[in-house]
Amino acid sequence: MLSLPPKLAAKLATPLQIGSVAVKSRVLQSPLSGVTDMVFRRLVRRYATESMMYTEMVSASELNHLRQLPKVMEVAPDEHPIGIQLFDCRPDFMGEAAQKAVAEGADTIDINMGCPVNKITRKGGGSSLLRQPEVAADIVRTVANAVGVPVTVKTRIGWNDEEINILDFAQQMEEAGAKMLVIHGRTRAQGYKGKARWEWIRRVKEILTIPVIANGDIFSVEAAIACLQETDADGVMCSRGTLGYPFLAGEIDHFFKTGSLLPPPTIAERLQCAKDHLLGLWEYKGKRGIYQSRKHLAWYTKGFPGAGELRDRLSRIENVEEGCLLLEEAIAANAER
Ligand SMILES: Cc1cc2nc3c(=O)[nH]c(=O)nc-3n(C[C@H](O)[C@H](O)[C@H](O)COP(=O)(O)O)c2cc1C
């Protein structure tokens, strides 16, 4: 039987304090580029009613140029608490973008210092900031001076195994004014491979006074508990475990708050959620939403008889009607599962 040690249960019963913002859940939904748009966040919010959510990462310097970007930053009035995540390496651009983000409704500004993608690191953003702690600190200071909301940082443990500098780096971010640190327990070189090294998160937690959130390999309630026990972190952030499964943050939060496990969604419920996702993307983004929905629908359709064939057909849909019909048939066929 799963249970929470009393000390951990007591901590989980208190709000997560991010500077001036108190959040009534210690389970956070991560920013995921190409995934955590308003449609996805709305699905997560159904189950994780009090969790902190994040937009996809937003380029601070391209904010004024790209047509799609304002939408990436868009936040609905009923979405709080929510952070807008920015990336770039130029403090002045970041400060300006942060002001726009606050005007859009951000409760916090998160700075991406963990993205491993070459296109971003080559320009000095994302995880390459781990190698330029002075620039990173300058960004935090500049953004904190530009806005009244708390500034947070999401990063990795280092650039590669030879350069694991998260202990010094984390301290520098705290000194620069960061109000929370989210640590993905992998190096940039690891990408998403290998296991997340939670032991480094524990070491950071030992030396910081601001909240430390553990990220990496939180795929279940069991993993969330194990991670908090190992790291003593102030909360967990779910990421890949939510792809095609927007139930995860809510499931973990429910266990943290009640000590009991929610029954997992049935196949039919998961497929219904997939249909809601498709309809949402169509309404919000039109044809572009249909193309984007294909990868989501593939993530939803795993682990039941006929899933492979359904996935294959959903990955080629051209319009919303076609997708809905396939999903409705699958829902009817799986009504008893
Ligand atoms: C498709 C995808 C998109 C991501 N986009 C972002 C992003 O925009 N901002 C960010 O800070 N991290 C991003 N990440 C990293 C995740 O937030 C998270 O740190 C990482 O996946 C580790 O957690 P996990 O092992 O539970 O997946 C992304 C990861 C994936 C797989």
Write the layout of secondary structure elements.
Elements: H1 6-12, E1 16-18, E2 21-23, E3 27-29, H2 38-47, E4 53-54, E5 58-59, H3 69-72, E6 82-87, H4 91-104, E7 108-113, H5 118-121, H6 133-146, E8 151-158, H7 166-176, E9 180-187, H8 198-207, E10 212-215, H9 221-231, E11 235-238, H10 248-258, H11 267-285, H12 287-300, H13 307-314, H14 320-333
Parallel strand pairs: 3-11, 4-6, 5-6, 6-7, 7-8, 8-9, 9-10, 10-11
Antiparallel strand pairs: 1-2
Bound molecules: flavin mononucleotide (FMN).
The number of distinct helices, counting runs of at least 4 residues, comes to: 14
CATH superfamily caption of the largest domain: Aldolase class I
Radius of gyration: 20 Å
What does the main sheet amount to? 9 strands, parallel
Distance between the termini: 24 Å
The level of helicity is 40-55%
Strand content: 5-15%
- How many domains is the backbone divided into? 2
CATH top level of the largest domain is Alpha Beta
Q: How many β strands by DSSP?
A: 11
Shape: globular
Q: pLDDT under 50 segments (min length 5)? A: none
Which class do the helix and strand fractions yield?
Answer: alpha/beta
Average pLDDT across residues? 96
CATH architecture of the largest domain, by name, is Alpha-Beta Barrel
Write the CATH fold name of the largest domain. Answer: TIM Barrel
SSE ordering = HEEEHEEHEHEHHEHEHEHEHHHHH
Ligand kinds: flavin mononucleotide
